[in-house]
Design goal:
Layout (H helix, E strand, L loop, with lengths): L1 E4 L5 E4 L1 E6 L5 H12 L11 E5 L4 E2 L3 E5 L3 E2 L2 E7 L5 E7 L2 E2 H4 L3 H6 L3 E2 L5 E2 L11 E8 L2 E9 L6 H6 L10 E4 L14 E8 L4 E12 L4
Parallel strand pairs: 3-15, 5-11, 6-17
Antiparallel strand pairs: 1-2, 3-4, 7-10, 8-9, 8-15, 9-12, 13-14, 13-16, 16-17
């Protein structure tokens, strides 16, 4: 279990973390993501979407994370969290993943890296009818400058309600969190020392933001 404190003052105890993969709404986009991972040696999924389990303790508000080796990278994703009262909230997190290990086991690669979480949340019910309009954006630092890495709307990801009903039991239970999938990387998946992301609500002109740095620990044989 891990406790996450948000800027609203909420403290949510997360007991279960699910990472939904291969969640693109457009079959061609899913095929593109499968192909870009195949270029890294990652085997194709047995079905789509898939629901991976990971330790809730991986979720973190830390501004800096450590990884083993330099073969990891971030992925901006919508984050759903159900509080103790059963209310579902929408946030933002990075499914930071070890790409070298991913070629061996996607499930293990998900478990090995921390998952940085933004400190803001929006009530999911307040966004009913316009979730598809929300913009997901990420940038990475390359050569000392920020460059675009991911950008699109949630219309490119399977409806969040469908991802919830696809869970075992058909619901996001209190104490559960789910990362809901990502968008293709602009220029291909690659590591970077800094990663930043936003979930933007154009109608209200507000955004959830998160930035973090990555320290690659030496691999000792």
């Amino acid at each position: 279990m891990t406790k996450l404190r948000f800027d609203t003052g909420q403290v949510i105890a997360v007991r279960e973390l699910v990472i939904a993969g291969w969640t693109g709404r457009d079959e061609a986009a899913v095929a593109h993501h499968i192909a870009e991972l195949a270029a890294l040696g990652v085997p194709a999924p047995s079905s789509v979407p898939l629901y991976y389990r990971a330790g809730a303790e991986l979720l973190t508000h830390a501004a800096q994370i450590d990884t083993v080796g330099a073969d990891s990278s971030g992925e901006a994703e919508p984050l759903l969290i159900c509080d103790s009262a059963g209310d579902v909230w929408l946030g933002l997190a990075s499914d930071h993943t070890d790409r070298a290990l991913e070629a061996v086991s996607v499930a293990k690669s998900k478990q090995i890296c921390p998952k940085p979480v933004a400190r803001s949340l929006w009530r999911l019910a307040d966004l009913d009818g316009r979730l598809d309009d929300l913009v997901l954006r990420a940038e990475i630092e390359e050569g000392g400058a920020w460059v675009p890495y991911q950008e699109g709307t949630l219309a490119e990801i399977r409806p969040l309600a469908a991802l919830i009903t696809g869970l075992p039991g058909g619901q996001l239970a209190p104490g559960m969190a789910m990362l809901c999938g990502t968008l293709p990387a602009i220029g291909g998946i690659r590591p970077a020392p800094r990663f930043r992301m936003q979930l933007i609500d154009p109608a209200r002109k507000v955004a959830i933001s998160r930035e973090y740095t990555v320290t690659a620990l030496p691999v000792v044989a």
